[in-house]
Design brief:
- By secondary structure, the protein is an alpha+beta fold.
- The protein folds into two domains: 35 residues; 107 residues, Protein of unknown function DUF192 (Jelly Rolls, Sandwich).
- The protein is 22% helix and 26% strand.
- A six-stranded mixed beta sheet has the order 1-2-3-8-5-6. The protein has a two-stranded antiparallel sheet with strand order 4-7.
- The N and C termini lie far apart (94 Å).
- About 10% of the residues have low confidence.
């Protein structure tokens, strides 16, 4: 019987062996993931610094929405602010209205007052009682540019407040006494 010797390759690779197996990598290929990580990290940092979770637009942390019917039959899509944190944040630091506006839902009826600190655009503010009837409207409320910021509030108590685009109330012919469909 003839014996055959089988040689096994060496398991250790030296620096020259590694250089032979590596391909040159472009700087763009390495730089792109680094830049992407920096942008993502900055976005998360800014969101956390502003006291709000990063907004993804969907998923379990996305704000709830509600369709509200106007007396004209038009339905508007409003982001719902029904927690103390969401009500406190409101439109602060936003560049535009989410969808058609925000619906603030309070736990108790009271003369809820609003200010425009750190807001970037004018809005209409509409107060509603527990029966969804408009009690007051402040039209074309400007952003606050310097402290102390003025506050805006209803003459009567409210349970709901809508913040919509400036001029919306006039365009939809809204006035106190009208009922909205929440």
């Amino acid at each position: 019987m003839e014996r055959v010797r089988v040689e096994q390759p060496e398991l250790w690779l030296g620096p020259k062996d590694i250089e032979k197996t590596m391909r040159p990598v472009s700087k763009r290929f390495v730089l792109f993931p680094v830049v992407l990580c920096i942008i993502f990290g900055a976005t998360v940092f800014v969101s956390i610094s502003a006291g709000q979770p990063p907004h993804t637009g969907s998923g379990p942390n996305a704000p709830a929405h509600r369709l509200v019917a106007l007396p004209s039959g038009v339905k508007i899509d409003l982001e719902v602010a029904d927690t103390p944190q969401a009500r406190q944040r409101g439109l602060m630091f936003r560049d535009r209205l989410p969808h058609d506006g925000i619906l603030f839902v309070f736990q108790e009826t009271a003369p809820h007052r609003f200010w425009m600190k750190n807001c970037k655009f004018p809005i209409d503010i509409i107060w509603l009682d527990p029966k969804n009837v408009i009690t007051d409207i402040s039209e074309n409320v400007p952003p606050c540019l310097a402290d102390p910021c003025p506050t805006y509030g209803p003459a009567r108590s409210s349970l709901y407040v809508l913040e919509v685009a400036a001029g919306f109330s006039k365009k939809e012919h809204l006035s106190p006494g009208m009922r909205l469909g929440l």
